[in-house]
Amino acid sequence: MTQKFDVVVIGAGPGGYVAAIKAAQLGLKTACIEKYQDKEGKTALGGTCLNVGCIPSKALLDSSWKYYEAKDHFAIHGIEAKGVTIDVPAMIGRKANIVKNLTGGVATLFKANGVTLLEGHGKLLAGKQVEVTGSDGKTQIVEAENVILASGSKPIDIPPAPVDQDVIVDSTGALEFQSVPKKLGVIGAGVIGLELGSVWARLGAEVTVLEALDKFLPAADEQIAKEALKTFTKQGLKIRLGARVTGSEVKKKQVTVNFTDAEGEQSIVFDKLIVAVGRRPVTTDLLAADSGVDMDERGFIFVDDQCATSVPGVYAIGDVVRGAMLAHKASEEGIMVAERIAGHKAQMNYDLIPSVIYTHPEIAWVGKTEQQLKTEGVAVNVGTFPFAASGRAMAANDTGGLVKVIADATTDRVLGVHVIGPSAAELVQQGAIGMEFGTSAEDLGMMVFSHPTLSEALHEAALAVNGQAIHIANRKKR
């Protein structure tokens, strides 16, 4: 007998599992389908983010930063640490334990909320029927009143550097190195490339990042991107812009990478090469030909502002649809869709989705950049405050970077908050909360911020928008 559900979710990543839990909490009979298996051959929930993305990479970023500080920056605190070494397998093992705890936690949440887990590959058929193919090849059909497609994304492959997960790896392989490569190449100076490059550079690798674009971090505010490039270069990352990889050859556990840049044809030999040129949606064999769901030529599923597809009762969220490929965006889309299925008029504010790069210093922003606003012809006032003037940052020996607040010159409404520096993601989230309620720079400036905190840098930057900063000299108005 065919199982029937109110909601069937395909994919248990941060979009899918959150949607399934929310739908169940709203009283809907819910199933979630997941095919991903861990090294032990057991179904692992949490998608790319928990298993081979956001969480494990942060574990390595934090471990490598602690090593770097102990090795090079404890003396300033009066702490003597001699002969500091890194046990890479132990670091990787810690990461694996964190992943195991979190993926197991999702399974526990499914049980607690009454979500039925169906293990296998989910495929949408006509009439909102879903075929589930188990790892043993056996299939079953389930019927759904509503289907949520949340199959996620995977790393993009490029022909000039085919991944073998040994010498040439993608972001997944870069989380599994058992020793520090002497010379490491990274193709792509985006979020993933910079984070993974940072991990291994701190542990002693000589890292070269090859970026095809001539501009560094084009999505970020130009002032922040410029500061980031200067900082990473100082940290030892060799970032080569306008470098187009044309080919690679693996020989004796090394790879020669050929590329062209402004100086012509070049080649560099690396011990390991990470390919981090972006991600693409996983929609292969997700939809039967007669499912009725429309996709574009790049494999993204067409949806409206509420994530509804071309088929009534079928929704798609996360990395398989338009917009930023971010876990928090996927989760909030999942909640919005579950609530709409339950009859609520939920909406999502796509203008205020924060972006974060978890390097050190962190880089984060929400809202619009100064260059975007200039292009749109919006007159703005800008306030900045450097962490070099923050007492809390000095106490932590972490004074690099700045906070930037951009406000409409006419209304004073905050249109963007951009940070490079300690706890950038947390400070930007404070900005996002204010912006959600239509804050002005004056509003932020009038609030009481505790002292001494890093948050005071946001306070001062907001005051600086209107030339009222206390702890730095204000720009004279022309």
TrEMBL record:
Cofactor, how bound (note): Binds 1 FAD per subunit.
Cofactor(s) annotated in UniProt: FAD
Subcellular location: Cytoplasm
A single GO molecular function term of this UniProt record: dihydrolipoyl dehydrogenase (NADH) activity
Pyridine nucleotide-disulphide oxidoreductase dimerisation domain residues: 353-462
Domain FAD/NAD(P)-binding, chain residue ranges per copy: 5-334
Top EC category: oxidoreductase
EC number of the protein: 1.8.1.4
Entry keyword set: Cytoplasm, Disulfide bond, FAD, Flavoprotein, NAD, Oxidoreductase, Redox-active center
Protein family (similarity comment): Belongs to the class-I pyridine nucleotide-disulfide oxidoreductase family.
Additional free-text comment from the UniProt record: The active site is a redox-active disulfide bond.
Subunit and interaction comment: Homodimer.
Protein name according to UniProt: Dihydrolipoyl dehydrogenase
Gene: lpdA
